[in-house]
Specification:
alpha/beta, Nucleotidyltransferase, domain 5, 5-stranded mixed beta sheet, two-stranded parallel ribbon, 7 strands, rod-shaped
Length: 139
């Protein structure tokens, strides 16, 4: 009867490099997602309330444009002029066709300011535009 010699079998070591790679990729994903999500909440704009609004998950690729009551436009917490915004939108539309844009117009902002930004989106070739709103509190 032949018995197996256990001294010849080699123990398999746990490979840590692939596991460390996966952990770092997950960490990078969450840091980048958090970084894009914080831009939307940093701008002091109170969007209008709506009964039909539904909460949505923001993807990291979405571009958030805020319109303040005085008509100033902010993108990623940077104030931009209309020309700078048009250049940015044109660049984004050429690099990423179908790019999503969220327009956060303040409830006290004049409609002409919001329409001016919407016109710039249309001229730049961006068609995927959504309007941000808050849900009304239902008591």
């Amino acid at each position: 009867m032949k018995f197996r010699d256990n001294s010849l079998t080699r123990k398999v070591d746990l490979q840590l490099a692939p596991m460390v790679d996966v952990v770092f990729l997950l960490l990078m994903y969450f840091v980048v997602s958090w970084n894009f999500a914080k831009f939307e909440s940093e701008v002091n704009i109170s969007v209008p309330k709506s009964d039909n609004s539904t909460p949505s998950q923001q993807s990291p690729a979405e571009l958030v444009i805020g319109v303040a009551p005085d008509g100033s436009v902010t993108v990623n917490n940077q104030k931009l002029t209309r020309d700078q915004l048009f250049e940015k939108l044109t660049r984004v539309a050429s690099l990423f066709p179908g790019q999503a844009v969220i327009l956060r117009g303040d409830g006290d902002a004049e409609f002409t300011y919001v329409m001016a930004v919407l016109d710039l989106c249309q001229k730049a070739g961006i068609w995927n535009v959504a309007f941000a709103s808050d849900q009304t509190s239902q008591s």
